[in-house]
Write a structure and sequence with these properties.
The complex is a heterodimer of chains A (283) and B (311). Chain A is mainly alpha-helical and 283 residues long. Chain A is 75% helix and 4% strand. The model of chain A has no long low-confidence stretch (mean pLDDT 91). Chain B is α/β, with parallel strands linked by helices and 311 residues long. Helix content of chain B is 32%, strand content 29%. In chain B, the strands form 3 sheets. Chain B has a 6-stranded mixed β-sheet, sandwiched between helices. Chain B has a 4-stranded antiparallel β-sheet with strand order 2-1-4-5. Chain B has a 4-stranded antiparallel β-sheet with strand order 12-13-11-14. Classes of the chains: A mainly alpha (283), B alpha/beta (311). The interface between A and B is medium-sized, with 28 and 39 residues.
Amino acid sequence: MKLFLIQLRSELRKLFARRRTYIGYGAFLILELVILWVFHLDKPREEMGKILSDAGLEVDHYYSALTVTYWMLGFSMAMLGAIYLALVSGDIVAKESEDGNLRMVLARPISRLRVLTIKYVAVLIYTLTFVWFVGVSGYLMSSIALGWDGGLFVWNYELRVFSFFPEVTTGAGRLCLAMLLLSLSMCTLSSIGFAFSCLRIKPAAATILALSVLFVDSVLQMLPFMAPYKEHLLTHRMSNWVYVLENHVSWAKLAESYTALIGLDLTLFVLGWMAFRVRDFKT
Amino acid sequence: MTREADPEVILEASHLSKSFGGKPALRDLSFTVRRGEIFGLLGHNGAGKSTALGIFLGMVEPDGGEARIGGASVQRRRARALRQAGAIFESPAFYDYLSGMDNLRVLMSYSGGFDEEAALRVVEEVNLGDRIHSRVSTYSHGMRQRLALAQALLPEPRLLLLDEPTDGLDPEGIKWFRDFILRLREERGMTVLFNSHLLSEVEQMCDRVAIVRQGRKVYDGRLEGIADEEMTLEIEADPVEQARACYGRLGGRELGEEGKVSFPEGTDPAVVARELVEAGVNLRRLTPLRRSLEDVYLEVTGTPEGKEESS
């Protein structure tokens, strides 16, 4: 176990030593600033104010750092998070294979399964820290702009979620839970990227394939005749993190979705390993 | 599985065969490398040398046969086998954005752990002490090759597998590398498998060679004496027909090139000259030639132009 942790630390060192990693973090900070600026514009303020007042909620209390953070999480993960995580997970094996680093690793007394396990765990850790970075930095920026106080207001038309938490502590707690589940959702995207990365393909191809899966799935979700089958679609399951923000959480529904996603993650890992274990590495 | 094996044999290739997309890259390749030996695996580009090396390192799965390092099967007991080996590739790929030391740290974590003191010692040995904390992206090809040597030596292997290690190095770098490998054998009794198409390098370093052509071994033997197994003479004589009859009587055979005649080992050139003169041949010139490794190589691979279809 100690050796595994040393190897994992090495893998994370490689991952976090890349300049690109930090460019990605920087890109997200800029995106959050843009979202924050949009929320400051009169029109969005008016729109949200109307929804809140129609619901009989106090606009000033719910137009808060927590509410903006919730929107930031949803927007930024859907817009940029998917691309960025697919890029990192698609790179994790394929890039090293392309650059020849894997030959240096595989020349050592370590099994392929272990090499892949270390890489997969590193990708999962990266995904979790990434979502949390976006959430925490989003909250900090929103707090500077709007003040740390205020309730949390959640509205998701697609999932029929409309809830509010007047207490800042309750709202923050729920948002933390939501971030945890959103990280798990994004792990599925990373798992898809990882599985493609294990094939004998270019890193860019692995990224594009992972994003294509996500894109096709979300298009299917939008088609009216697919409504009865929505439960089987990946992007629907991945968006279920919002359910933890309902006033009365349906834990069974969440457990079902996340069991399915975790099962899919493990299946993707096994598929990736099966492809990787029979590959020949040669110049 | 470890089988009862000759403890003097460090590497054993046993009936290895491998095809890529139906095209054979290795065909029934067998040889052994003994303790303390520097063994050269020679062949044209695409002859199957790198495939063989890939099989020894468990990176390429053979279609048939088995490779053993220190008696442990690479295919069945990979970790145990590779614990005894270190490898260097033609173009070692490091993590360019990390320092040399961080690269060693990362790579050694896959070999059971990193010992900074040992790393500094090896780094000094390969003359990389002053640049080991710089990013690898700033390294020259020679420095990368020395870092490759350091990462291969750090786990203290019994066997060093070198895949075209001097390719791209300047003459000074090649000499340094050669001297270093020879010193490793002398001081530590290191066994080395040297994979190359540079005949001069092999000639200067190896005790024994196997020559591979189109995936098949065409020669396996000691290097000393390889060039002298036959005596080659360059003869200018006429009439040619009469001279040919004399060569035949002495067991000689004409080589492709004009005037070159090969005789069995131990043939005295004076005896050839006497035979020709006594037969009434007008002998103008008779020069004994030493066959170089290159001659032998070209002879057994049968491609004097050095061309080979890739496999």
